[in-house]
Design a protein that fits this description.
The chain contains two helices and 56 strands. By secondary structure, it is mainly beta.
């Protein structure tokens, strides 16, 4: 039975979940879903906690008005039940798991103002609205929403038995009769207005509701009369539609659009007062709680457990004249802004697309680098802060490596060039043009830092001599017939092994530039690593197998079933060679005992395919990256760190003793 790996930290923000970035009412914690996990990040202390209970990607998250409860829903496969989980924020534990009444997808969740009820609605394959009693976890009442799927639901601000649901082309106002366990609805008269509604906010007096549309305008309705009132802004449509909407206490409306526009609109005349642009489509808004509007002396927030400097920063946040606004976008960026002038300030960022490779400097665990579309990023592994970003717009970086002397980062790009950068400034050091036709897929530096071995999309393996001023190709080795997926160089720099999607791994002589041995298997090899003593090779590929190979005769020694459901894309081995780590399409990080071939530890959290996994040089943590753009940092189990290759070896007999 595998034990669960302990998740130490996450670098990432999946901005595609609508209203998924939430500032907790205590103004100290930021919550957002990342795959199957809810990340709870302390803003000032920068610590992280994780709520893990879903077995599939989280589709919606919401927090009650006081912050006592968190609710989250997930998406599943067609025909399967979709769970809703109510979490207790204080204990960071599951309070209730609500199941059986929704299928496939939870579309929207909302808490009543008094925190007695939670309403949930399913997606278009479910189309059921259910109201749950939070204390007991039982369903109170429910009703089908009809064939027109619900996009969002929202309880009134001062009533726990009335809520609104917005659809494509219609709006419904629901009234719940809890004593008779019934719920009914009234259709809002929209007149001639035809819109697909995407988001909704109800004013503080429950008199009006403002709804954003895919057309890019705001529709205001009267809740008392269930009737259309007006549409705005005047002579202005927001490109790509309005994704999120909220209202500040003075009544003005804030909207976030698909083109990255944040705008403040006067509620009295529906005119734009101020606006700004951010990177990516705006998907989340979150206002700070208890921030003052008319007075400079608000209720003081709790300062328990904060350092003096943290208290002063917290005090400034709470005593701001205007509500600070936190904005999330689908490009994995988080901004802070004030609600007066709308001047967003970038606070957090991560990869928004698939991460292709991951590398540590030689013998140094405090930083690591990742590469993706458009850029290479260097991260501090302790603070999880981005230290450096190297951007090459319009291109995709397939592979990165640190030279052993730490003087450059080498990278392979889809335009066929190898680029080297300085690791501290990110300045371009040199470029090898036309290194490979159709793209460089992998690069590796030798231990003496004098050569680079690269692989290409068409199967070429090339060796480059790196001088102070020039970069010259020493040899081009063409035996692979498909993409070269990985290259590893031995400790003496006299041999290198390359793996390819054509089902072959070749060990090359780097002195004579000839093939030493070739390994064949009916698979697409994704990665290859040397055992620390270089007597064996370890490969992973599309056949879901982890294979041990003898470096002397090229024979397969052992094959492990590395996964039950998908390809294995990544593999790494500890310094002692007693354990190896794998990851792939099953989204699981697994630690294997090398000699026993048994998986003892397993890490769950990725929402996309794992593309690379690496053990830190000091062996204290494991980093995995995936197709969703997230970086997961796992604590290495104690037994893995302490495992020694020599501890199980027989001791040499003393003189006079019989072996």
């Amino acid at each position: 039975m595998e034990t669960e790996l302990e998740l130490s930290a996450v670098i990432g923000f999946k901005g595609t979940v609508a209203d998924g970035l939430i500032l907790h009412p205590n103004n100290e914690h930021l919550l957002f879903p990342l795959g199957t996990t809810i990340v709870v990040r302390h803003i000032i202390e920068r610590t992280q906690q994780f709520l893990r209970g879903h077995d599939n990607n989280i589709s919606v998250i919401t927090v009650s008005d006081s912050g006592k409860y968190i609710a989250s829903g997930q998406q599943t496969h067609m025909g399967f039940q979709a769970d809703v989980i109510i979490w207790d924020f204080d204990t960071m534990s599951i309070l209730h798991r609500l199941k059986l009444l929704h299928k496939v997808l939870i579309q929207s969740l909302t808490f009543s103002f008094n925190e007695m009820y939670l309403a949930s609605v399913g997606g278009q394959d479910d189309a059921n609205l259910v109201i749950w009693d939070i204390e007991s976890g039982n369903a109170v009442c429910g009703n089908p929403t009809g064939t027109n799927a619900v996009n969002r639901i929202c309880f009134y601000n001062n009533s726990d038995d009335r809520l609104i649901s917005i659809h494509d082309y219609q709006v419904l106002i629901w009234s719940a009769d809890y004593s008779n366990k019934k719920i009914s609805n009234d259709l809002v008269n929209l007149g001639q207005v035809k819109r697909k509604f995407t988001c909704v906010v109800i004013d503080h007096s429950d008199s009006f509701a403002y709804m954003g549309t895919k057309t890019g305008d705001i529709v205001e309705i009267s809740l008392d009369k269930a009737m259309y009132k007006r549409i705005g802004p005047v002579k202005r449509l927001f490109s790509l539609g309005i994704n999120c909407i909220t209202q500040v206490p003075n009544g003005d409306i804030l909207v976030g659009a698909g083109d990255g526009t944040i705008a403040k609109i006067d509620h009295s005349n529906m005119r734009v007062k101020s606006e700004a642009e951010v990177l990516g489509a705006v998907t989340s808004f979150s206002l700070t709680a208890d921030a003052p509007t008319d007075s400079l002396e608000p209720t003081k927030p709790p300062f328990i457990g904060l350092t003096p400097s943290a208290r002063s920063r917290h005090f400034v946040l709470a005593h701001s004249r205007w509500h600070p606004l936190i904005v999330g976008t689908d490009k994995a960026t988080i901004y802070w802004s004030d609600t007066d002038t709308i001047e967003p300030e970038l606070r957090n960022t991560c990869h928004y697309a698939q991460i292709n490779d991951l590398a540590f400097p030689y013998g140094f665990s405090k930083v690591f680098a990742t590469c993706s579309i458009n850029d290479i990023r260097v991260w501090n592994s302790k603070t999880r802060q981005e230290l450096l970003r190297i951007e090459v717009p319009g291109l995709e970086c397939h592979s990165i490596d640190f030279l052993k002397n730490g003087k450059s980062i080498i990278s392979g790009w889809n335009d066929g060039k190898i680029r080297a950068f300085l690791p501290q400034s990110g300045k371009l050091l040199y470029v090898i043009n036309d290194a490979h036709n159709h793209g460089v897929t992998v690069v590796a530096g030798t231990n003496d830092c004098s050569r680079i071995v690269s692989g290409g999309e068409q199967g070429e393996v090339r060796v480059w001599s790196i001088g102070s001023q020039t970069q010259v190709m020493e040899a081009s080795l063409k035996e692979h017939r498909a993409r070269v997926s990985d290259i590893k160089i031995n400790a003496n720099d006299d041999q290198a092994v390359s793996s390819s999607h054509d089902g072959s791994c070749i060990v090359w002589d780097l002195e004579n530039f000839t093939r030493i041995i070739c390994l064949f298997e009916s698979t697409m090899f994704k990665q290859v690593v040397y055992h620390p003593d270089e007597s064996q090779l370890l490969t992973a590929g599309s056949d879901r197998k982890i294979t041990y190979w003898d470096c002397y005769d090229g024979q397969a020694i052992r094959m492990l079933d590395g996964s039950d459901s998908g390809e294995i894309n990544a593999i790494d081995i500890t310094k002692e060679g007693e354990h190896c780590v794998s990851g792939g399409e099953d989204k699981l990080v697994k630690i294997w005992n090398y000699d026993e071939g048994i998986c003892y530890n397993q890490g769950t959290g990725h929402s996309g395919t794992i593309t690379r996994v690496k053990i830190s040089p000091d062996q204290s943590f494991i980093v995995s990256v995936g197709s969703e753009g997230a970086i997961f940092i796992w604590e290495t189990p104690k037994e893995v760190i302490e495992a020694k290759a020599d501890s199980e070896m027989p001791e040499a007999p003393e003189d006079g003793e019989v072996a």
